[in-house]
Amino acid sequence: MAERIFLREVRLENINKTLLFYQNSVGNVSCVVWDAALVLTKYLEKQSSKSPGWLKGLKIVELGAGLGCVGVAAACYGSDVILTDLPDVIPQLEKTIDLNRAAWNDKGKISAVALTWGRNKPGDFEFIHQPVDIILLSDCVYYEESVEPLIETLKSLSSKSTEIFVCQEQRDTEKMKAVWKSFMNKLYEDFTASKISVYEQDELYASPDIVLLKVKKK
Prior knowledge:
Elements: E1 5-12, E2 17-24, H1 35-50, E3 59-63, H2 69-76, E4 80-85, H3 90-99, H4 101-104, E5 109-114, E6 134-138, H5 144-157, E7 163-169, H6 174-190, E8 191-195, E9 210-217
Parallel strand pairs: 3-4, 3-6, 4-5, 6-7
Antiparallel strand pairs: 1-2, 7-9, 8-9
Helix pairs in contact: 1-2, 5-6
Pfam families: Methyltransf_16
């Protein structure tokens, strides 16, 4: 099947910004803006409407950023954002950053850095330069073999003051249910997690099939 590239628009109504993303009709990951990313993006928008200065000046890291929708939105609200993903995804993230420069440039900062999850050494995070205030993850829990490396990276990146937002579509195959259960079991060893109800989320961009968690280190 030949790939087809097209533009996806995501509106941030409260600041009158339109974000743009190159989507690819062929591929499984890092090719489209997934529903979980939209839910988390619109949650940030809603909370920023309630507390306009909430994200201003915060150091934010998005893990498994894909097309970078959530992180770019955070930069539009004044955050200093680092989008991270595997090395082969970084060129696409850099295109996303440039494509949306007019939306974020007058408010926040944003960059893209390659980061492979796992037993990271302290030097692996020198690019951050300061403690991380918020970590963002949307649809990052997909493969059993990535669960433990992801947890290790969360432990390395976070402090007890770091807020972690995990947004994940609950897929109904037995394999995906098992992967999510494995992730949550390992997460609870070092973190607490509370579910953000659909009533606290955007009225349109929320679904009982997409769980949104606020996670803190114990």
